[in-house]
Amino acid sequence: MTSIEFDIEGMDCPSCVTRIEKALNKIEGIKKVSVELGSETATVEFENGKCDLNQVKREIEKIGYRATISEDDREELSAEIERRKTNRIYIVKIITAITLSSVIVILGMKEHFSFFNLISYQVANLIALPLSTIVIFWCGLKFIKGFITETKTLSPGMDSLIAIGTLSAYFYSVIIMLWPGISGETEQTVYFESAAMIITFILLGNFLEFKLKSKTQYVIKSLMSLQAKKALVLRNGNETEIPIRKVRKEDIVIVKPGERIPVDGLVLEGSSSVDESMITGESHPAEKIPGTQVTGGTFNIDGFLKIRTLKPVSESYLSRIITLVKDAQKSKPKIQRIADKVSSVFVPIVIIISIVTFIVWKLIIGETLSYSLLKSVAVLIIACPCALGLATPIAIVLGVGKAAENKILFNNAEAIEIINKIDTILFDKTGTLTYADFRIRDVIPRNGYSKEEILKIAASVENYSEHPIAKSIVSEYMSSGNKLIRPESFRITPGVGVEATIEGKTYKLGGPALLKKSGLVELSESVRNIYLLENDRLIGEIQIQDRIKENSKKVIDSFKQENFRVELISGDNKETTSQTAKELGIDNYVAQVLPHRKLEIINSHQESGRKVAMIGDGINDAPALSKADIGIAIGSGQDIAIRSADIILVKGDLENILALFKISRKTIRIIKQNLFWAFFYNAAAIPIAAGVLVPIGISVSPVMASMLMAFSDIVTVLLNSMRLKYMKVR
What sign results for the dihedral spanned by CA atoms 127, 133, 135, 139? Predict the structure, then answer.
């Protein structure tokens, strides 16, 4: 068996998934098809040699979508070009639709504009006809094509709902322009503006979804960009720069200061500080000396390293993370839009009712052709599903807009609904609940020195270092107006620490590697300390810790009051994680967690029936952000975490999480209200339009049907949705 993944372009509702799966399952040799709407992919499993991939692509394209093979770089480039082309076409069509629809609406209300009073209704209609034709048949072409495809496959969806409403209004308007007497009305009213505005609003909603979904296509590319493109390899005594994919196991790789480490390997020579926060989540740079292991994709800060490659790039830790992210994205739950669920029943029923209405009035009751046709058209117009079609996108547009005002961005609009189902919230520590900058937790003097003397010497020694912790020590010491001592000499030992001569004495400052090199024993294994030595004699320790964000506890307390299960999972050491959890009042926490373990924790919660939100900021959080039901990234964090997440907190303000949940609840409540009133309206209005109340003197003409349809749009959807714009989130 072979499995191939295709990228699919053009899917916009669950019925698209069904159509593609139905079409591909008919192809001989294919054993299993899995189509994912969120990631816009189709995974096809087939027997070796028994499936033509070109036929698969042709079948997908035949039903109105575009397929490219993910593994083919040329196809990927072609897909990217196609996405950009689609984006440009969307923008042109939206601008055209808004412009022409505005003109059509003004023409329909010309009595309110003195300039247009010079134009007769006949001339106004003649101008509106070609303008609405452009909006419907060019701007709205995708809906008409979708309607035709759905009709052929007998699986009506949103395209059918949109097309039948707009085309009914449009063709009825054309008919009464050509045969004015058919309407039975003294004043002929056309409905071009209704048809045009439906297309315009739906296009806007679809474009928003297109833009949000397109952002999630680059997650894997962003991860791969962390991998060095080339490596400096030592072969036959010569240093040779080769493409990273050609590095083999046991190759010796040279890494200079300021470079990204290209491979997973073992340090043979040299020492350096390495930023591993992208992998472990730990805020402190790790000291690397001979015998320690390094991970591909981490950043070499200040030293020279000679590394023996332990694994080929295809099996590296970073490659495994890429695979985890890819698999986690595929397993995301998908929203089921209510309108799409009922469309397969709603659309045929409306058409049948319209036909039955005509037959009853013409053949059974014996009314004229024009009267019977009027009743039939009134049913179609009053049942025009624009309110149904707008119920979700308009509310989402406003909800997403309200979130953006509060510096909350969505990578995935479907997340608005899923948030309401969350009952478990997992927080990363470093950079999420803390600032990822350092402060002095405590100074422990030894051998007769005072705290002030230890801090003064340490800051004076570190003043010439660019290390993040060094800057923190110097900054904190000088913030009180203290003065530094100028060293007589200064030297950096990469991966170990710094050394300076002050008043004839040699001082060394560094982490555990310094103690090890000096033949001393680390005194405080549970806390990451900086040690100060005078002439190789330990005279003091400086404990460094990250700073908790001011509003972290408030946010945690708020979630606990609402009965959310709150947990802390961190790659940092147990002591630091425990201290942070205690200060924030978090009872459940796990320390020293690598990316795959975070994934296991989330999966365990999901298997027990919980809906999980993961909040993080680093590359080590990327798989977890993708696997969680909702991934929330801190905007100040790693770019890959931002791209992997469903939601981004732009300024990293944790209080925005509370605003996010409030906006989500309100948006979904509005959507449900919109859908309820849209369905309720159709259920009540269709029988009246069909003429059920004619015996008691109540009759609905197409003119009145159009007014009632507009009432449905404005009152039950637009005005109700506008409440989102003015809601208070704090």
Answer: negative
**pLDDT, the chain, mean:** 77
Instruction: Select, from the ranges 92-96, 118-122, 179-183, the one with the highest average predicted confidence (pLDDT).
Output: 92-96
Residue 74: C-alpha distances to residues 3, 70, 189, 326 (Å): 20, 10, 54, 20
CA 47, 49, 50, 56 dihedral sign is positive
User: Cβ contacts of residue 230 below 8 Å, gap of 6+?
Assistant: 241, 242, 243, 244, 262
Q: How far apart, in whole angstroms, are the C-alpha atoms of residue 499 and residue 534?
A: 10
275-287 confidence digits (pLDDT tens): 876 665 555 677 7
Which two tokens mark 637? 């964090």
Give me the catalytic one of 7, 12, 340, 428. 428
669 pLDDT exceeds 80? yes
- pTM: predicted TM-score of the whole model, two decimal places: 0.54
Quote the pLDDT of residue 632.
Answer: 87
Which secondary-structure segment (H or E) carries 270? strand 265-270
Radius of gyration of the chain from Cα atoms? Answer: 33
Q: Which helix (H) or strand (E) holds 612?
A: strand 612-616
Token pair of 81, please?
Answer: 């070009």
In DSSP terms, 569 is beta-bridged to: 590
Q: How far apart are CA 716 and CA 132, in angstroms?
A: 25
pLDDT category at 523 given cuts 50, 70, 90 is low
Q: What is the pLDDT of residues 206-246, one digit of tens each?
A: 676 566 455 544 545 556 666 777 788 887 777 877 767 67
Where is average pLDDT lowest: 65-69, 80-84, 216-220, 337-341? Answer: 216-220
The backbone torsions φ and ψ at residue 282, rounded to the nearest 5 degrees and listed phi first, read -70, 135
Amino acid occupying residue 450? S
DSSP-assigned letter for residue 244:
G
Q: What is the pLDDT of residue 95?
A: 92
The Cα angle at residue 64 between residues 61 and 65, in degrees rounded to 5: 60
**Burial tier of 266 (Cβ tally within 10 Å: 0-12, 13-18, 19+):** middle
Burial (CB count within 10 angstroms: exposed 0-12, middle 13-18, buried 19+), residue 272: buried
Query: Under 8 Å CB-to-CB from 431, ≥6 apart: which residues?
Result: 283, 616, 617, 618, 634, 636, 637
The Cα 131–Cα 708 span in angstroms is 24
> Is-catalytic flag, 327?
no
Q: How far apart are CA 409 and CA 211, in angstroms?
A: 12
- Specify whether the CB–CB gap between 647 and 409 falls below 8 A: yes
Residues in contact with 484: Cβ distance below 8 Å, sequence separation at least 6, in sequence order: 456, 459, 460, 463, 474, 477, 478
Residue 221 tokens read as 């590319």
Inter-residue contact 389 to 682 (CB < 8 Å):
no
> How many Cα atoms within 13 Å fall on the side-chain side of residue 86?
20
CA–CA separation, 506 and 533 (whole Å): 8
pLDDT range class, residue 610, cuts 50, 70, 90: very high
**Helix extents (H) in 216-335:** 219-225, 277-280, 317-330
Dihedral sign for Cα atoms in the order 571, 577, 580, 585: positive
Query: Residue 235: beta bridge partners?
Result: 238
For residue 226, the 8-state DSSP code is T
